[in-house]
Design a protein that fits this description.
Rhopdopsin 7-helix transmembrane proteins; mainly alpha; G-protein coupled receptor; 76% helix; 348 residues
């Protein structure tokens, strides 16, 4: 028994340490993203407002979800409704983050599909309203167990997620209705964006052949650039799928195969993996933008009191998702070549 107790203590210590590290990294990276956007007026664009909202949601995950998961693991709070609220709170922030990822994908689809209409319709006021709607939708879907779709009330002295949340809710609504549906839509959207980028890159290459002296060199490297762009776009949806799916597979096993058993340590690993998504979001969405990345780097250097010359944070124009905002004017077409990578920066 002593050996078993030591194993359990080691497992608990590793789990709590991992939750703390994930929460700290999520809080640090996402706070850096928010500060970089807020403190630089030229980054105040509609696209970056969605990224800032996503980062704010992931900050909340780092502040509350990882400690709440650790509390629930320890069995606190030891009453039914307290345990139910803590469990719902985790679902709320998870849903807000996922819905935000979906909205960012749809926003980019709209910007690529109808760039001029996007510039006309998508104002900052509307973006703020959409961001508020994301939180309201996430809160309402996360609180559904509090409205009645939960396990029957009973006296509890030890809080466990499965004692208050029904697996039917986790599988049918959370997994099939929110996570899986969002992933399918995101895969479809980013696949379309990849196709559009390749199509326009081909046209740009033809333009270079006509107007640029370096067209041959550019054509030799265009295949690599397209592969990089495609991998960046697809990995956004892949990361969400990889992080959120394993824990829901275990939920499906618990619901559809009552007699099936699986290692509890492996289940804890899937919980940690689902929380890791909040650490990956700022890397995949914000750090992929060179201007935000430079602003984040500048903040870190400021915090460390390091002066580095030649850091250019932002330009004079705001960051947009208009796929044609970096295109050369007609009178500049013969003076310089326009590279596919510049088009990619405009659309991504």
């Amino acid at each position: 028994m002593a050996g078993v107790e030591k194993t359990l203590e080691l497992k608990d210590a590793l789990y709590f340490t991992a939750e703390f590290l994930i929460g700290f990294v999520a809080l640090s990276l996402n706070s850096l993203v928010v500060l970089a956007i807020v403190k630089n007026p030229s980054l105040h664009s509609t696209a970056n407002a969605f990224i800032c909202n996503l980062a704010a949601a992931d900050i909340t995950v780092g502040l509350f979800v990882t400690p709440s998961a650790a509390m629930s693991y320890m069995g606190y709070p030891g009453n039914f409704y307290g345990c139910l609220f803590i469990s719902c709170f985790v679902l709320i922030l998870t849903n807000v983050s996922i819905i935000n990822l979906l909205v960012i994908a749809l926003d980019r689809f709209f910007a690529i599909k109808a760039p001029f209409l996007y510039q006309k319709v998508m104002t900052m006021k509307k973006v703020y309203c959409i961001n508020c709607g994301i939180w309201l939708l996430g809160i309402n879907t996360g609180l559904i167990p509090m409205y009645g779709w939960s396990q029957p009330y009973r006296e509890l002295t030890f809080c466990r997620f499965i004692d208050v949340i029904k697996m039917e809710h986790m599988v049918y609504l959370q997994f099939f209705g929110i996570i899986l549906t969002s992933n399918i839509i995101m895969f479809a959207v980013y696949t379309y964006i990849c196709l559009v980028v390749r199509k326009h890159a081909r046209k740009i290459d033809e333009m270079n052949m006509r107007f640029a002296s370096q067209a041959e060199i550019h054509r030799a490297t265009k295949g690599y650039r397209k592969q990089v762009v495609a991998s960046k776009l697809v990995i956004l949806a892949v990361a969400l799928f990889i992080c959120r799916t394993p824990i829901n597979i275990f939920n499906c096993i618990s619901l559809f195969c009552k007699t099936c058993k699986y290692p509890y340590v492996l289940f804890l690993c899937t919980i940690l993996l689902s929380h890791c998504n909040s650490c990956l979001n700022p890397i995949l969405y914000a750090a992929s933008n060179s201007r935000i990345k430079a602003a984040m780097k500048h903040l870190v250097l400021q915090a460390l009191n390091i002066q580095k010359e030649g850091i250019q944070i932002v330009g004079s124009s705001s960051v947009t998702l208009d796929p044609f905002h970096d295109l050369p004017r007609p009178d500049e077409g013969r003076k310089s070549s326009f590279k596919s990578s510049e088009y990619v920066a405009a659309t991504y």
